[in-house]
Protein: Fatty acyl-CoA reductase
Amino acid sequence: VSTAYVSGEKAGLIKEEPYYMGDTLNGRTGLDIEGEKKLIEAKLQELQDEGATEETIKVSMKDMGMERSMHWGWPNVYVFTKALGEMVLMQEKGDIPLVIVRPTIVTSTYKEPMPGWIEGVRTIDSLIVAYGKGRLTYFPGDLESIIDMVPSDMVVNAIIVAMEAHANKTGDPVIYHIGSSVRNPVKLRVVHDISYQYFTKHPWINTDGKPIIVSHVKFLDSIDSFKGYLTLHYLLPLKGLEIANSVFCQYFRDTYMNLSRRVNHIMRLQEVYKPYLFFQTIYDDENMEKLRTEANERGVETEVFYFDPKAFDWEDYLINIHIPGL
Structure:
């Protein structure tokens, strides 16, 4: 199980094609997993020899992971290591049948084991939760960009059907994109409007027992615009509070801490989702569509093993299943 985002930030139609050892997204040559491992091990040993603290080691290794990912054209360590994993499987598979599935953004279940079931808050959900808590008023993004999502039970069903279809079969490896951008696309504008409708009708309650009032998010058309807004409305006031605290014996400490946490949270969200905020990518699912057709022809119980993204309505799913599940 990989991820559709092994393609990085490429725009346009992404085909269901494999990665081979040495492939990169920016055309650089020389990528080798053993070489990457040696670089990482050497860096870790260097930090340990210097007596670095656990926190320093953690931060330094994270920074190095990001540096190596971007060196080869991937936007973060997660998708870089997924791509490396695919390369290793392609290299080592031998005669073993190989199927690689690449889901897009995996969201809560559509039906099973119950509608809206989810563990943890990830990807697009972090933005929805921050919005529901009143913490997201401005954010970079293109309202016309497609948010490629798929419910987790559909991902599981697709994996099971693909395993059954390819068991004990020889031949070339098969790649499957599991997503919705081709068959049932939904735009950021729709996700935002539905979130606004939901939280207006069903507001979350704050620590004071009062309903949280949400407003429409102001989406900024570039990262630079967002950073300018953040500086003017948050970073400069934060600096002023820091100075005031030093003058007035930490009198504004609580206000400073609350604003600081809010700024850090927004900056983390922006950093995590920066590669996808202006996404112009469609994940071709021709192989997956063939699998659906063949499953129907073989008599697979598609009512049980459902994985057709055209089978549900995004508004109904988001407002009645997914957001309540969060």
